[in-house]
Structures are given as structure tokens and as C-alpha cells.
Amino acid sequence: MKRITTLVVLASAALALAASGAAVPGQGKPNHFTFTVTTTDDGSCGTPWATDTAKRTFSVKKNSDGSYRLLRRDRGTFVTTGPASPGACNTKGPHGTVVHAAAKGRFHSYLVGRVTGGTFNPNATCTADCGFTDVFVTTFFGPHAQYSCFTNSKNCRFDFEYSAAAQGLRYHHWSDKGHGAGTLLKERFRGDIADH
User: Fold this and answer.
1) pTM of this prediction?
2) Contact (Cβ atoms closer than 8 angstroms) between residue 63 and residue 87
3) Cα distance between residue 180 and residue 187, in whole Å
4) How confident is the model at residue 26 (pLDDT cuts 50, 70, 90)?
5) 127, 143 contact by CB (below 8 A)
6) 91 or 79, which is more confident?
7) Which residues contact residue 177 at a Cβ distance below 8 angstroms, ignoring those fewer than 6 apart?
8) Phi and psi torsions of 31, nearest 5°
9) What does the DSSP 8-state code read for residue 83?
């Protein structure tokens, strides 16, 4: 989860709004928006361990109370930057401490929470990098909108799963999952992508 709030743009692919659902907000079907993003990825120690490139899809659906459910799904690849492994600061289970640079793998993830304090505009125009969640929320919901995954909230769930085969690695799978955000964050790390 730490990686969510500390994403840094390393490179920006030609971003384009791939799809916007034809449904009217609040009438059943969610609206979908897809981007390509490249970011640094922080591990359990809060330090960078990889560069991610992902296809990111946001799904927006209006709730009955006027808020919006915002689901972000990523699917992509990563390249390790080292030297710390993502699980180096795990407190439970077997894990490593070091990963060499340039190991490659795949990942998939989701992040889901609630947007309040804004009005959804499915036809908004991206003038910045809307593949990043904070920019997406401001662009499509307005400057006063708040996303529960970026505040002190119980209303956030996430799961990030990483895997890499061979390449001299001792550990081949790492996960970062949990619920809540800010002071209410409950996060679990398991496994690692590590040499030793």
C-alpha cells in the first residue's frame, strides 16, 4: 500500500482514453477507462525495488448514497532495481533481503475504494497523466473529491501479487494485500522476490 501513495512517474507512455462505458452513471454498468503507466514500486521497507509498466483500468460505478465506487486494476510487468527486495522488512514468514537489478517478472493488482465530495464527469479531458489515481480522481470528479484509499479510512481494499521465475532468485512470489488506509491501514506482506 505504501507504493500507492509514493508512485513516481519514470516514463509516460502515450496515454489515451481507451474506453468509456456507454452506461449512464448510476444505472447499473460501470464506466471503464484504460491507460498505460510506468511507475517505481516501493516494497515493505518503503524503498524502491522495481519499475512497473502496467495496463491500468479504472471502473467507476455510482452508489445509492451518491458516492462512487472506484476500482483500479493493473496487469503488467516489472524489472527489479535492487538492492533491497520487496519483502526485506516482512515481519512474518520466510523472505529474503536482497534482489539483483534487472530481474523481470509479472504482476497484477487491484485497489478499490469510495469517492466522495465530487461529481463524476465521464467525458472529462485528461490534461495530465490520468493513469495515476490522484490525477484520475481530480480530473473525473473535480478538485474537492476525496478517494478513501488516500485518507484515514476503513473503506479501501487492495491486493498486489508479483511473480518471477528462475533468474538466480531464491524467492519467486511476493504479495502486498490488506484493507484500510492512513492510520486505519491493515497490511500483510508475504513471500518475496529475492536472491537471498
Assistant:
1) 0.85
2) no
3) 8
4) very low
5) no
6) 79
7) 158, 159, 160, 187, 188
8) -90, 140
9) S
